[in-house]
């Protein structure tokens, strides 16, 4: 959650493109990120419980690499808090009609990337012709991002594997599928997240239930 001071500054002075995603897919993606990039050692079910409860700090405290960084720099700053999910999303959803806020769903990007690019360029006050949009669509495609060393963390991962800081195999950019959670969550876990989502008014507005 943003601090009140930073929130006022952010929403008053900057152009913001905010992307949200189905919380069940977000949970799965965040778990793999923490496990592969930050050394999270806990079980998936426990991670999901922490995600539902919005306990980002507890997730952080189970990330081996994050704790090593804090120990190395002797930081007095509290661990980062990446939750609660709905608190974060709601801050932007309620401001989606502000002229400097562009609210976007990941599912829409997957459904029609060229259309989303056109909307974003309009929001940014730019103009691209059809050829430029095609080039940008190809550049921003999932397959292109997966092999793009500027964003795929390959060098970071190789470095940490060489120093045996992470032991898990995989890629930073994994699958990117819509509803990919169905292949990773048990029916019981899906029901638990569905019940949690039923309690969130913004979930229905966003089309997630």
Automatic annotation (TrEMBL):
Stretches that traverse the bilayer: none
Superkingdom classification of source: Eukaryota
Molecular function, one GO term: sulfotransferase activity
InterPro entries xref list: P-loop_NTPase (IPR027417), Sulfotransferase_dom (IPR000863)
A Pfam family that the UniProt record links to this protein: Sulfotransfer_1
Residue ranges occupied by any Sulfotransferase domain in the UniProt entry: 15-200
Chain coiled-coil ranges: none
Keywords for this protein: Transferase
Family from the record: Belongs to the sulfotransferase 1 family.
Protein name as it appears in the record: Sulfotransferase domain-containing protein
């Amino acid at each position: 959650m943003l601090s009140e001071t930073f929130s006022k500054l952010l929403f008053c002075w900057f152009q913001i493109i905010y992307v949200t995603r189905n919380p069940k897919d977000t949970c799965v993606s965040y778990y793999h990120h923490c496990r592969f990039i930050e050394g999270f050692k806990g079980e998936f079910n426990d991670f999901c419980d922490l995600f539902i409860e919005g306990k980002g700090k507890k997730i952080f405290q189970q990330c081996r690499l994050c704790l090593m960084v804090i120990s190395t720099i002797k930081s007095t700053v509290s661990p980062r808090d990446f939750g609660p999910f709905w608190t974060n999303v709601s801050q932007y959803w309620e401001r989606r009609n502000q002229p400097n806020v562009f609210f976007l769903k990941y599912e829409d990007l997957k459904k029609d990337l060229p259309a989303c690019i056109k909307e974003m360029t309009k929001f940014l006050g730019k103009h691209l012709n059809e050829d430029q949009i095609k080039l940008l669509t190809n550049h921003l495609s999932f397959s292109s991002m997966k092999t793009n060393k500027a964003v795929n963390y390959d060098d970071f991962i190789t470095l940490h594997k060489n120093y045996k800081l992470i032991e898990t195999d995989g890629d930073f950019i994994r699958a990117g599928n819509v509803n990919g959670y169905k292949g990773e969550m048990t029916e019981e876990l899906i029901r638990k997240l569905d019940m949690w989502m039923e309690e969130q008014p913004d979930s229905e507005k966003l089309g997630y239930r």
